[in-house]
Amino acid sequence: MDDRATFGTAREGSLPERVLRFGALLGGLVLFGIMLLVSVSVFFRYALNQPILGNQELVEIGMSVVVMLAMPYAALTGQHIRVDILDHRLGGAGRFACDLFARAVAILVLGLLVRKAWGKALDAHEYGDVTNMIEVPVWIAYGAIALGMGVFILVLALQLFLQFRRGIPNYE
């Protein structure tokens, strides 16, 4: 069975799926850039005794962007980690209730995270907070977290909608 049917997510090729896939691909390109940066940095450090200034800062901010761009797509397609130890014993109604509870709690917690990250992004932008070595604006990382988790909330809300639309009798 297709994971999209199992997790109650958008159809393949739909607008939400294409947009989130683009974000994940963009995150993959950023990850590739980080990989190149780290490889060149290691070569410069050990072969030429000339480390790249700010390498760690770029990796840290870049990884926050990578994770936040990829996470909503992973949730939409059901590619994240899912523990189903008791699923076979709960039956359809039990899985329906557990998925409902998990998604509702995730929306609540992620909503708090988005609120906090957005506030930190605004503060960092207002005060001009930058990293120590090469002065990369810190609001980029906080903004990526707020945006990624906000989109993740929308994915979870879509999954809840589709879960209720399918109903308990048809829930797998």
Helices and strands in order:
Elements: H1 3-7, H2 15-47, H3 55-77, H4 87-127, H5 139-166
Helix pairs in contact: 2-3, 3-5, 4-5
Describe this structure in words.
By secondary structure, this protein is mainly alpha-helical. It has one domain. It is built from five helices and no strands. The termini are close together. The N terminus is likely disordered.
Task: State the main characteristics.
172 residues; mainly alpha; 5 helices; 0% strand
Strand proportion: under 5%
Q: What's the tally of helices? A: 5
The total count of strands amounts to 0
Helix share, percent: over 70%
Radius of gyration: 20 Å
Q: Classify the oligomer.
A: single chain
Q: How is the biggest beta sheet arranged? A: none
Low-pLDDT regions: 1-8
Molecular shape: elongated
The average pLDDT score comes to 87
Order of helices and strands: HHHHH
- Classify the secondary structure makeup into a structural class: mainly alpha
Measure the end-to-end span.
Answer: 10 Å
Tell me the domain tally.
1
